[in-house]
Amino acid sequence: MGPAALLCALCLLPRRLAWPLPAEAAEAAEAAGARGPPRTQAQDYLKRFYPSDSEPRKADSFEARLKLMQRFFRLPVTGVLNSRVLEIMQKPRCGVPDIAEYSLFPTQPKWISRVVTYRVLSYTKDLPRVTVNQLVAKALTMWSQEVPLSFRRVLVGTADIMISFARGAHGDSYPFDGPGNTLAHAFAPGPGLGGDAHFDEDERWTDGSRIGVNFLITATHELGHSLGLGHSSDPDAVMYPTYRVRDSKNFKLSPDDIEGIQKLYGEKNKSRKN
Ligand SMILES: [Ca+2]
Ligand SMILES: [Zn+2]
Ligand SMILES: [Zn+2]
Question: How far does residue 185's CA lie from ligand 3's centre (Å)?
Fold first, then answer.
């Protein structure tokens, strides 16, 4: 795959992170009821989600990246590891950086055709096929209601957005990792892998009626990436980087998501009237 392909992954960080901490942060984390990461784990988090194209000096990179994170999450920008920061670091989240690497969104990729095709290539054992089809359609409709795009399901051949469930290594450079951690990933619009969304079959997928990872919520987020959206720092947005359980019956796009998708594709009504 090309270096410009954008990979997005929903990561469910393990609930029990037995990360030792610097004394002060450990105390703060303990007070917050969290088991925090050591500075090195926090460093990994920041490197992963706040990458920079030019490597800053080692001495100040941690603080600089932490400040970027604090700014993204609308926290006081102190550059100091504290319980609120650690709490966010332990939340389940998407694996795509909150600040895209310079190589990720070089041209703001989007679909040019007004009709985008999709195909569900493989299914999960956790849900009936008809449910998966319904939820994928529901997720796509949430987006297509807001922009002049429509989606057409195809049953054979290559579609723009190929959706599949797979476990472990599955043909791209991003093998899945068993239950937890990475839940899914998706690629920004483009040829080949572009637009494709992969879901880790080692997760326990649910339609909301049972315990597990909510497929509708995850699919809506990943398909947002498939359409070209990055992350939002608005906590109400579907494109917010941390995953949380929501009421899937009343689940909908936030004004921020709608603003984002319309920035790429324009408003639906305007183009309809034209
Ligand atoms: Ca996984
Ligand atoms: Zn994401
Ligand atoms: Zn994949």
Answer: 6
Ligand number nearest CA of 162 is: 3
- Residues sharing a CB contact under 8 Å with residue 209, sequence separation 6 or more, in sequence order: none
Question: What CA–CA distance (Å, rounded) separates 132 from 130?
Answer: 5
The domain segmentation of the chain, as residue ranges, is 3-94, 115-273
| Per-residue pLDDT tens digits for 82-129 | 999 998 887 767 766 776 544 345 568 899 999 999 999 999 999 999
Domain 115-273 has CATH 3.40.390.10: yes
- 11 annotated as belonging to a binding site for a ligand: no
Radius of gyration of the chain from Cα atoms? 19
Residue of 7, 112, 97 lying closest to 48 (CA atoms)? 97
- Reduce the DSSP state of residue 60 to 3 states and report it: helix
Nearest by Cα to 20 from 11, 32, 29, 12:
29
Active site residues: 222
Ligand nearest to C-alpha 8:
2
* CA of residue 203 to ligand 1 center, whole Å: 6
Residue 146 is assigned to a ligand binding site: no
Query: What percentage of the chain carries pLDDT values higher than 70?
Result: 76
* Residue in the structure block whose two tokens are 């995953």: 243
pLDDT in tens, 196-211: 999 999 999 999 877 8
CB 199 within 8 A of CB 220: no
Ligand 2 centroid – CA 210 distance (Å): 23
pTM: 0.77
